[in-house]
Amino acid sequence: MTASPESCPALVLNADFRPLSYFPLSLWPWQEAVKAVFLDRVNIVSEYEHVVRSPRLQMRLPSVISLKEFIPLARRPAFTRFNVFLRDRFSCQYCGEANATHNLTFDHVVPRSRGGRTLWTNVVTACQTCNLLKGNRLPRQASMYPRTHPYQPTTIELQENGRGFPPNYLHESWRDFLYWDTELEQV
After folding, report:
1. How far apart are CA 142 and CA 80, in angstroms?
2. Could you give the residue range(s) of every CATH 1.10.30.50 domain in the chain?
């Protein structure tokens, strides 16, 4: 049985052969990848066995593509709930437990009702239990202190953290490009 083209996304690498993003992983649907090939915006690095055909040509679907022009990473990452979770590695900063995103929230270290602002430097990842337990109190009042002082991460740091959370599906042709610079075990 042949896989459908929909099950053949392309891993998108920057011109330096590093993924544009690790978390979420930079993937394009097969249609976007093929269009980019024909517009000469990417190089095909690896291909699937799956072939698509038109009246005039046929081609194997790209599994890994690299951009022809380098896209620099943003200097400052967007301040989003997801990026706070990623900075804190999906772990509650009070109890230390790792959680799925649907069990996480973020906590204002200095509550908004006490003048705290919604900034990188005042927001940490918290599980629902710890967030309720801390409530509207300052850390010293609740005797609950974040394990890591909140700070604004760099885009590179978030990328590195994202590498620690591989996606559910990894095609074998992607592996060399996702983890090529990880330290090897010395035997």
Report:
1. 26
2. 81-142
